[in-house]
Amino acid sequence: MTAPADGTVGPVGDRDGWAGKVALITGAARGQGRSHALALAARGVDVVAVDICEQIETVPYPLATKDDLEQTAADVERAGARCLPVVADVRDRSLLLDAVERARASFGRLDIAVANAGVAQGYRDDDGTTPEQQWSDYLAVNLTGVWNTVTACAPAIVDGGRGGSIILINSTSGIKSMSRGEARSDAYTAAKHGGVGLMKAYAIELGPVGVRVNAVHPTAVATPMTENDAMRAWVERNVDRVANGFRDAMHVGRVQPADITEAVLWLASDASRYVTGVSLPVDAGFTIV
């Protein structure tokens, strides 16, 4: 399998075992979410692509736009699958419930959910927001948003009667604390650790009906979330305060979206049908150094 220059996984032609499946992906307008959407579409999976498509005041770098979401939808359809783009904020559970109902109305079912939406820490000098606002927003997106996604999607997957897969895109910060005494990074670390607890709880809850729940823990991925001035400033301010200065065991630094997508594809597929409750690092050994 080869990956295009933007790091997304390209069409592979082999659709065995994927036909008729439907996936809902949050944060799908760009970056990892788009990569996951296109890889699933290449295998014949219809996609519900969800994104907020507006700025959150406390996030110090630009978020995705409606144009980005429309591009994902167009790319999914070019890959040979149907796409339902939905503008929704994962902090609002009612919007995700509506997205699931729209998915059922459009495609008849739901089999896969990828809770990918998230916001990362960063630093900017001209920040007019308070630590309290930052803590609240970052927990709301990165933890409450995951709970909202799981609880909105799970009943539809269960109703399908053939099991399914829920995948939480977590972070190495859910394994190895990256908190640096700042509200954004404190909340990010707390949310990602909380996400692991949610994953384990729902793996137990949904296991008897054949729905698997797992977490993927990426290291830094080359997407707009990490490749921006605010994140570069945050790294510069903290490189001497983090153990081993953000180095990983393989000395590769950032990985590509396609590297995370490969893990998502495996966890979404029948090949991992007995894998649940697992934290899967895709981090080049970042969490062990």
Polypeptide structure, described:
- By secondary structure, the protein is of the alpha/beta class.
- It contains seven helices and seven strands.
- The chain has helices at residues 31-42, 66-78, 93-107, 131-159, 183-206, 229-238, 257-268, and strands at 22-26, 46-51, 83-87, 112-115, 164-169, 211-218, 279-282.
- A seven-stranded parallel sheet has the order 3-2-1-4-5-6-7, with helices on both faces.
- α1 runs parallel beside α2 (66-78), α1 packs across α7 (257-268) and α4 runs parallel beside α5.
- The two termini are 30 Å apart.
- The model is unreliable at 1-8 and 10-15 (pLDDT under 50).
CATH topology (fold) name: Rossmann fold
Percent helix range: 25-40%
Q: Give the percentage of residues in beta strands.
A: 5-15%
Query: Tell me about the biggest sheet?
Result: 7 strands, parallel
| Alpha-beta content class | alpha/beta
Poorly predicted ranges: 1-8, 10-15
Number of alpha- plus pi-helical segments: 7
SS elements, strand count: 7
Listing every helix as H and every strand as E from the N terminus to the C terminus, the arrangement reads EHEHEHEHEHEHHE
Radius of gyration: 18 Å
Which CATH architecture? 3-Layer(aba) Sandwich
Determine the mean pLDDT. 92
Strand order of the largest sheet: 3-2-1-4-5-6-7
Shape: globular
- Name of the top-level CATH class: Alpha Beta
- What number of domains? 1
CATH superfamily: NAD(P)-binding Rossmann-like Domain
